[in-house]
Design a protein that fits this description.
By secondary structure, this protein is α/β, with parallel strands linked by helices. It has one domain: Pyruvate-ferredoxin Oxidoreductase, domain 3. It has a five-stranded mixed β-sheet with strand order 2-3-1-4-5. The protein is globular. InterPro entries: IorB_Oxidoreductase, Pyrv/ketoisovalerate_OxRed_cat, Pyrv_flavodox_OxRed_cen. Keywords: Oxidoreductase. This is 2-oxoacid:acceptor oxidoreductase family protein.
């Protein structure tokens, strides 16, 4: 099912943070969920000076037809930032009227969200803005994470959806 939101144009999502926070894994899950929706998907990654602790960003574009994986500055429909201190650094990626999704939106979440699941909880927030069925998201989470991490991350995803 492709709805009006995604039927006519590519959707541009930048996911950013620091190495080791699951930025690339989050982009893999998003790309997989969009692909399961039957959309054309392109993805690219940019790693900073070090993979652990350096800046990392990933562009994910999906829609009926996507030619390039790269998102030009100021063209992201959504900017998902896993590390709060990376919001200002990555804000130029967001277009006017685009949506910023950051850990601040998870403040007040019931219980303690493990740091290793913040990326998936943020995808839960993002999922409320996209026309990709929950089943595709959940299947993508299972396909991209080891089985021992399924329960925790599916719960984090649902928490993000509830917080949206």
């Amino acid at each position: 099912m492709v709805t009006e939101k995604t039927a006519n144009r590519a959707v541009n999502v930048v996911i950013a943070g620091l190495g080791g926070q699951g930025v690339v894994k989050a982009s893999d899950i998003l790309a997989d969920a969009a692909f399961r929706q039957g959309l054309d998907v392109k993805k690219s990654e940019l790693h900073g000076m070090s993979q652990r602790g350096g800046s990392v960003s990933s562009d994910v574009r999906f829609g009926p037809k996507v030619d390039s994986p790269m998102i030009s500055p100021g063209q992201a429909d959504f900017l998902v930032v896993v590390a709060a201190d990376q919001v200002d650094v990555n804000r130029p990626a967001l277009k006017a009227g685009g949506r910023l999704i950051s850990p601040a939106l998870l403040a007040g979440a019931p219980g303690k969200l493990p740091a290793k699941s913040v990326n998936v909880a943020l995808l839960g927030l993002l999922s409320r803005q996209l026309d990709i069925p929950v089943e595709h998201w959940e299947a993508a989470i299972r396909a991209n994470l080891a089985e021992k991490h399924h329960r925790l991350n599916l719960e984090a995803f649902q928490l993000g959806r509830q917080m949206a």
